[in-house]
Amino acid sequence: MQKLLLHVCCGPCSVAIFEELSQEFDVTVHFCNSNIHPETEYDKRKQEVIKLCKELNLEFIEEEYNPKEWFEKTEEYKDEPEGGKRCPVCFEMRLDKSAEYASKNNFDWLATSLTSGRNKYAEIINPIGLQVAEKYGIKFFEEDWKKKGRQEKATKLIDEKGIYRQDYCGCIYSLTE
Ligand code: SF4
After folding, report:
1. Cα dihedral 100→104→105→106 (10° resolution)
2. Ligand 1 proximity of 42 Cβ (cutoff 6 Å)
């Protein structure tokens, strides 16, 4: 099986993806989300992903939590609404770090759970994934995880497993919006 690094943003967005990708790839989970504010919320989402990884026997890797870098990169777009110009910068920062990790650790593929989320458009996220994967010499698994019944499957699994479901995207701006 080829090795795939799955960038994961949170439990609810990834629960329906793990099983599907594991049928085709040797999956490792990469938690790379310096956008999440405050740190207590970051820890809460991380713990949910760790719990799922343990349950499914998937390796969990955590990228350095660096909100300072995230704030610097997105400062220019702080007044944008969720879904506006700030979001592609946020996606690119996270996916670039995941692609770099994947490349340095001999992964063949990069994928992301980001297209599962509301206001997260595959038409915006997939080109960023392709671009960072090309930069680091790996392949990007293009998918829109909202499609093919995955949303319904995720809703069912979230209820069954009692997964914590946050009510904002992640950054301080989406928290206050
Ligand atoms: S709203 Fe979500 S995707 Fe957009 S910048 Fe904030 S955390 Fe990132």
Report:
1. 100
2. no
Best residue for ligand 1 mutational test, from 96, 173, 176 (most atoms within 8 Å of Cβ):
173
Rg (CA), the chain: 15
Residue nearest (by alpha carbon) to ligand 1 atom 1 = 82
Contact (Cβ atoms closer than 8 angstroms) between residue 10 and residue 147: no
Measured by CA distance, the residue closest to atom 6 of ligand 1 is 171
Give the CATH number, domain containing residue 86.
3.40.50.620
Q: Is 35 in the pocket of ligand 1 (CB under 6 A)?
A: yes
> pLDDT at position 119, please?
79
Contact 11, 163 (CB under 8 A): yes
Q: Are 107 and 61 within 8 A, CB to CB?
A: no
**DSSP string for 24-62:** TSEEEEEE--TT-SSHHHHHHHHHHHHHHHHHHT-EEEE
Please give the residue range of the domain that contains residue 139: 3-176
The finding on whether 173 has its CB within 6 A of some atom of ligand 1 is: yes
Contacts of 75 (CB under 8 A, 6+ apart): none
Nearest CA to ligand 1 atom 3: 87
Residue 88 Cα to ligand 1 midpoint, Å, equals 8
Structural domain total, the chain: 1
Q: Which residues of the chain have pLDDT under 70?
A: none
